[in-house]
Design goal:
The complex is a heterodimer of chains A (112) and B (116). Helix content of chain A is 0%, strand content 51%. Chain A is mostly beta strands and 112 residues long. In chain A, the strands form two sheets. In chain A, strands 2, 4, 5, 6, 9, 10 and 11 form a seven-stranded mixed beta sheet that branches. With 116 residues, chain B is mainly beta. Helix content of chain B is 0%, strand content 44%. Chain B has no helices and eleven strands. The chains are: A mainly beta (112), B mainly beta (116).
């Protein structure tokens, strides 16, 4: 079945450490996105990528980095520069010619 | 730019009650409209969509009709169940960004709690 796989589902990080969240899709989608969701809040866009080897900052890119070396993969690194990293992170993808966005199941990151 | 305005929550209903969550949009033309649902601890799922004016999207007993005269896409269900407790997001029309990708932004959604 096609879909988006995020891993890990739960992750604990010590302050000062970088951590990378994985996102893989087998939907053959060109566009991929990373969102952050805080309790009781909406989604905020961190980064998005329209095509391999290209990505753009979203609304809250500071403290995060991404790469898009392969069409199916869009990993997100939460760096030590991110002041409040504890949140729920959602990866998504969409076809350039389509208009529906598909989401992964999310990753819970907790900084301890 | 294109945008939506969604009814704020939280909404608490008893089982078998009628549900309406309001959503109105501002857009150029008649773009596709979407409702997403997020169950506790999970990612978002597409609930239903309508691709043109007067279309009715439906899924799992939920319906929404794309009404161009009122620029609305209200979500309705005739008889809610406890399992419908979730956060519902009315997604905006396709955002205009450079290139051809969409950059969708979501509001905080409407929290629905259904009591037995």
């Amino acid at each position: 079945d096609g879909g988006i796989t995020q891993s890990p589902k739960y992750l604990f990080r010590k302050e000062g450490q970088n951590v990378t969240l994985s996102c893989e899709q087998n939907l053959n989608h060109d566009a991929m996105y990373w969102y952050r969701q805080d309790p009781g809040q909406g989604l905020r866009l961190i980064y998005y990528s329209q095509i391999v080897n290209d990505f753009q900052k979203g609304d809250i890119a500071e403290g995060y980095s991404v790469s898009r070396e392969k069409k199916e993969s869009f990993p997100l690194t939460v760096t030590s520069a991110q002041k409040n990293p504890t949140a729920f992170y959602l990866c998504a993808s969409s076809a350039v010619s389509g208009n529906t966005i598909y989401f992964g199941e999310g990753s819970w990151l907790t900084v301890v | 730019g294109d945008s939506v305005t969604q009814m704020e929550g939280p909404v608490t209903l008893s089982e078998e009650a009628f549900l309406t969550i309001n959503c109105t949009y501002t857009a150029t033309g008649y773009p596709s409209l979407f409702w997403y649902v997020q169950y506790p601890g999970e990612g978002l799922q597409l609930l239903l969509k309508a691709t043109k004016a007067d279309d009715k999207g439906s899924n799992k007993g939920f319906e929404a009709t794309y009404r161009k005269e009122t620029t609305s896409f209200h979500l309705e269900k005739g008889s809610v169940q406890v399992s419908d407790s979730a956060v519902y997001f009315c997604a905006p029309p396709e955002g205009a960004v450079s290139g051809s990708a969409r950059q969708l932004t979501f509001g905080s959604g409407t929290q629905l709690t259904v009591l037995p």
